[in-house]
Design the sequence.
């Protein structure tokens, strides 16, 4: 959702991520101790109290300060501490890290058809209709609206899996017997961390449900996208009509409310998020979908980093939103090598809306909008309503004139860049009949607003601006069109790589639909953030990596159902190595607001292809030791690592293992100065145990690439083979990345890995000449 430095992209009315600081002298800190090796949670809790009591006068004070005791899948606690107490605990034996609990923020009918999972109500792909009922998807978000038809039991839904240990918690307007079923099998809420930072939730000042019920709409939207049931009649303002469903419509849903309404937005305390991780893994979820995060630079010492590390060790796949701070580089969030970070791209669906000029049958303009009923009005002059001639919501800028019956035209590039949302609100303040917002052609978007809004490109806008003011315009109802524009296209707001933690593994991992996504909505949440918008809707259309994340989570659930023994790394590899890098016309994937083609920093390995991911042929199965090697390079000690992992027989290698040797599905070398060899291990998971794969290489510019061996021969006795890639610089360069790929193929499967290389030979060659 994209204003560059902001992760809450107000333009698309989508929520994302940035800090909210507490102002008190004491703050909530998370004290991380590693894996929960005690099988008795009570013993773990007492251990935490003893640790905390060391910086208080008594156990009673320690218990009062404690916010959470994490005692199921990980060991640690959250407590209200001052800086001195936190510093003492940091240097206490057995403590791995102590970090502030910051605030995170929340980052359809057509998208599944677009990705190849076609479906009508009575039929469809076997992948969606026959898989998923044994898989449980945990959604970390703002809760759920349980009455939405997306969460109803479909006929023939079997009993809840016996391994499920979770529950539905009673709370405000949430009755477990009434609102949970064989589809929505879990609903919990976590607010202690939020309330320690902001005080007890006051529902009179800030409407909220003290339960898993969703008042923001965001959680309902993401949950229904990941695993919503099939619904016959979905749509918004007469557009995008059809059968709605999630990626895994037969999967079970468990909702963990960690984000609360705060100033009309969603704020998520890290202490609450880590508590959700701790309980979700204990409850028995198979997939965690988290459309939340923080501004770059990313940190390993975070609830997302710690919680996902332990979840993956327990066999739970974790999918994150990549963030909405694009198009700047190194803005990608949730870059942990054990998780999946998802970028956002467009669909092949658009909403063309025609603007006719009265009395001139040849003059018409076409933009994007969600307008159910046509409107007419005279073309208005902006300077008649705003002193500086710029559409802005500042009351001091208003002339006081009414624009009733008029259609206002606003340009995004008038003065400093004008945000659509400010222009829309300004149009409502002067009572305009409609708004035509002129913006770059490469940023298509359709969204509901408090006044009818049509977005057109600068070329058309310039022509429209030359018409005489007072000319009568007619805006026709929006249409729903398919395959009229190139897709997928990388969303301008989607955060980009390389990773700010370590550029030697590629993030984001993959791209999925995240623009104009239709899904279920809370009827208590208006469709816009504008004051006075009291409309109630059951479906809403949002844009952001918050929307692309649950698309991948749904596909992960399908793969997990089809391959229950696959590890989270194997599932991630299947997704990444089968992703495609062309649009619906066979051209390279384009990038919004740019003339360039997408590269791996935009979309990772490519755009998700669910059907191919079900049968990838070969996979890169990253191990816990791979992650340990990475953590060793990040400065963690061997003693700390032994406390963090399930199997403590791990150690840092005698010779440091470079991050580029992590057995990841992509290959990144951020500092190529001389010939460098990278190794990877592939495992045959195809239907035939005997298979022969041949390699093909696309070399990055100025880099010689040699792969050995060039043929991989798998057999029942040899299901894993290691190969090596030697890269040698052929040019003088510094600070510029180039891209290529390595693909293994048996004629049917095509196992592709992006090759990302930054040649840094300028200093080396200059020194040799001197």
Sequence:
């Amino acid at each position: 959702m994209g204003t560059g430095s902001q992760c809450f992209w107000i333009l698309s009315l989508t929520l994302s991520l940035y800090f909210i600081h507490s102002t008190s002298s004491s703050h909530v800190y998370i004290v991380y101790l590693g894996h929960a090796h005690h099988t008795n949670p009570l013993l773990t809790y007492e251990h935490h109290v003893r640790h905390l009591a060391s910086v208080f006068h008594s156990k009673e004070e320690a218990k009062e300060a404690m916010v959470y005791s994490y005692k199921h899948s990980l060991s640690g606690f959250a407590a209200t501490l001052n800086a001195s107490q936190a510093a003492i605990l940091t240097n206490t034996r057995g403590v791995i890290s102590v970090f502030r609990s910051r605030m995170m923020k929340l980052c359809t009918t057509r998208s599944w058809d677009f990705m190849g999972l076609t479906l009508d109500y009575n039929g469809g792909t076997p992948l969606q209709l026959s898989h998923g009922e044994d898989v449980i998807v945990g959604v970390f978000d703002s809760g759920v609206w349980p009455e939405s038809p997306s969460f109803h039991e479909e006929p023939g839904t079997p009993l809840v899996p016996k391994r499920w240990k979770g529950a539905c918690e009673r709370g405000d307007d949430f009755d477990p017997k009434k609102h949970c079923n064989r589809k929505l099998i879990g609903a919990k809420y976590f607010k202690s961390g939020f309330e320690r930072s902001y005080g007890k939730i006051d529902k009179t000042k800030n409407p909220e449900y003290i339960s898993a019920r969703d008042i923001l709409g965001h959680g309902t939207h993401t949950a229904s996208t990941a695993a919503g049931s099939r619904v016959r009649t979905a749509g918004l303002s007469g557009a995008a009509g059809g059968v709605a469903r999630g990626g895994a419509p037969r999967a079970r849903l468990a909702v963990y409310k960690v984000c609360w309404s705060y100033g009309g937005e969603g704020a998520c305390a890290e202490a609450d998020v880590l508590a959700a991780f701790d309980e979700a893994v204990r409850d028995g979820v198979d997939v965690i979908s988290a459309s939340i995060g923080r501004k770059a630079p990313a940190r390993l010492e975070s609830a997302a980093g710690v919680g996902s590390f332990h979840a993956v060790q327990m066999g739970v796949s974790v999918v994150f939103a990549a963030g909405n701070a694009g198009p700047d580089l190194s803005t990608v969030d949730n870059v942990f090598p054990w998780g999946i970070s998802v970028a956002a791209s467009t669909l092949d669906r658009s909403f063309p809306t025609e603007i006719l000029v009265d009395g001139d049958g040849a003059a018409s303009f076409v933009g994007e909008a969600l307008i159910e009923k046509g409107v007419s009005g005279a073309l208005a002059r902006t300077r008649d309503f705003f002193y500086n001639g710029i559409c802005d919501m500042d009351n001091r800028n208003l002339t006081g004139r009414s624009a009733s019956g008029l259609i206002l035209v606003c340009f995004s590039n008038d003065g400093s860049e004008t945000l659509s949302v400010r222009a829309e609100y300004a149009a409502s303040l002067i009572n305009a009949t409609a708004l035509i917002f002129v913006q770059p052609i490469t940023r298509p978007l359709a969204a509901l607003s408090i006044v009818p809004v049509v977005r057109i490109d600068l070329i058309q806008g310039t022509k429209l601006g030359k018409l005489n003011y007072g000319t009568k315009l007619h805006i026709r109802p929006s249409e729903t069109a398919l395959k009229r524009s190139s897709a997928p296209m990388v969303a301008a707001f989607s955060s980009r790589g390389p990773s700010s933690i370590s550029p030697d593994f590629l993030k984001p991992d993959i791209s999925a639909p995240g623009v104009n996504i239709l899904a279920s909505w809370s009827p208590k949440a208006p469709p816009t953030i504008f004051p006075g918008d009291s409309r109630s809707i059951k479906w809403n259309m949002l844009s952001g990596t918050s929307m692309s994340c649950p698309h991948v989570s749904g596909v992960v659930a399908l793969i997990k159902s089809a391959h229950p023994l696959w590890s989270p790394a194997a599932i991630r590899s299947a997704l990444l190595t089968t992703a495609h890098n062309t649009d619906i016309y066979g051209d390279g994937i384009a990038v919004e607001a740019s003339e360039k083609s997408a590269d791996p920093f935009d979309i990772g390995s490519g755009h998700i292809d669910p059907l191919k991911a079900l049968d990838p042929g070969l996979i890169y199965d990253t191990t816990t030791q791979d992650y340990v090697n990475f953590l060793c390079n990040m400065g963690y000690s061997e003693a700390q690592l032994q406390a963090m992992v399930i199997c403590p027989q791990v150690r840092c290698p005698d010779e440091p293992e470079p991050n580029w040797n992590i057995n990841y599905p992509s290959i990144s070398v951020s500092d190529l100065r001389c010939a460098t060899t990278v190794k990877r291990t592939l495992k045959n998971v195809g239907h035939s145990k005997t298979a022969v794969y041949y390699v093909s290489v696309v070399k990055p510019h100025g880099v010689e690439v040699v792969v050995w061996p060039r043929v991989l021969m798998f057999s029942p006795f040899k299901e894993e083979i290691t190969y090596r890639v030697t890269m040698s610089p052929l040019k003088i360069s510094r600070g510029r990345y180039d891209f290529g790929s390595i693909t293994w193929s048996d004629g049917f499967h095509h196992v592709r890995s992006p090759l990302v290389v930054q040649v840094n030979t300028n200093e080396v060659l200059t020194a040799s000449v001197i």
About this structure: Residues 253 and 516 are 23 Å apart (CA to CA). The longest helix spans residues 545-562. The domain at 352-479 is CATH 3.50.30.30 (Glucose Oxidase; domain 1).
